[in-house]
């Protein structure tokens, strides 16, 4: 998916021997803390200036393939669509926006006790009954409200279960993908910086040391790239599971309204 050159031209063995004999003049390779298990090389200032030069385009950097970038773009566009889909489904089920979490997260949309519509109606009927004449018995209507309230709470919880794969994608899987992309970009920067340091090595000893750092950074980059690719390869499977979630929701939505109609009809 990404290309990088590892061709390094070593100096002559005569120069290497002469360099190794000058023990007091050896230049130690600077090192920093590890990034993803890969030792960093170069001072913080040099690394900072290297990143700036990358941003302004004065240095070449490892480019990802067009296929890889397109796959990432498709995944990111899909996340926007999934967010909108989940928000609209939850808006159908829970029509009080106060109880729709932002961000969606675990999608817990159940209201507190007695704040669901039919629960509130049942409470109101019970409170007004003492003020009514005996011929205006609201116990039947209160019983219907109690049944509808129970049915609605069950539907709210069932909707959340129906959207299990969508919920997991929003609250966990896509966040993991974003972290993988950040890790990949850091490893790419580390590899490119190591390559830059290798090209600017001044003697055979530095070339050997910096080449080892570059090889480790390159290996780490390839590992991170493979992790992102592995996630992207799951995309068709994820979409299929999300499609099934939506179908399951519509099945239980129809069942909910059918059950509500039976309660209202049966009284």
SSE pattern, N- to C-terminal: HHHHHHHH
Overall SS class: mainly alpha
CATH topology name of the domain at 84-266, in short, is Substrate Binding Domain Of Dnak, Chain:A, Domain 2
Largest sheet: none
Mean pLDDT: 82
Q: What is the count of helical runs? A: 8
As residue ranges, the low-confidence spans are 1-37
User: What is the helical fraction, as a range of percent?
Assistant: 55-70%
Task: Work out the strand percent.
Answer: under 5%
- Assigned CATH architecture of the domain at 84-266: Up-down Bundle
CATH superfamily assignment of the domain at 84-266? Arfaptin homology (AH) domain/BAR domain
State the distance separating the first and last CA atoms.
Answer: 65 Å
Number of E-type strands: 0
Sum up the overall morphology in one term. Answer: rod-shaped
Please compute the radius of gyration using only Cα atoms: 31 Å
- Reading off the top of the CATH hierarchy, the class of the domain at 84-266 is best stated as Mainly Alpha
Characterize the structure shown:
It is a single chain. It contains 8 helices and no strands. The termini are far apart.
Topology:
Layout: H1 13-21, H2 44-55, H3 66-93, H4 117-128, H5 139-162, H6 164-199, H7 204-233, H8 235-266
Helix pairs in contact: 3-6, 4-5, 5-8, 6-7, 6-8
List keywords for this structure.
267 residues, BAR domain-containing protein, 69% helix, Substrate Binding Domain Of Dnak, Chain:A, Domain 2, AH/BAR_dom_sf, coiled coil, BAR_dom, single chain, 8 helices
TL;DR of this structure?
The chain has 267 residues and is an all-alpha fold.
